Amino acid sequence: MKLITAVIRPPVFEAIKDALTLFGVRGMTVDQVHQISQETAHIQIYRGQRFAVNAQPSVKIDLLVPDDELADLTRVISKIMATDGSDGSVWTTQIDLVVRVRTREHGLDAL
Fold it and tell me: In terms of residue numbers, what domain contains 85?
């Protein structure tokens, strides 16, 4: 089992969510985050003071997926991000155990 994590720009979120739903993804965790980058810093003026703003609002998506779906889902997310000209990141993490507490299901059954 793998955890796919993607940090994307907010305008791309709906397209990715719709594509993952069509693919058959039943659930995901979505967080609003800020991505800090020196490349995207811009100057703003507040009360006469100039300062660089380098924290851009982003959306973080986490998906737990079976190993055999990893490549396809990563490709779907990356393709939509590239189509939009969007920047962001996608990475995966190996997950050894998942437990759904309410039903006491383990592993793939917990998904």
Answer: 2-110
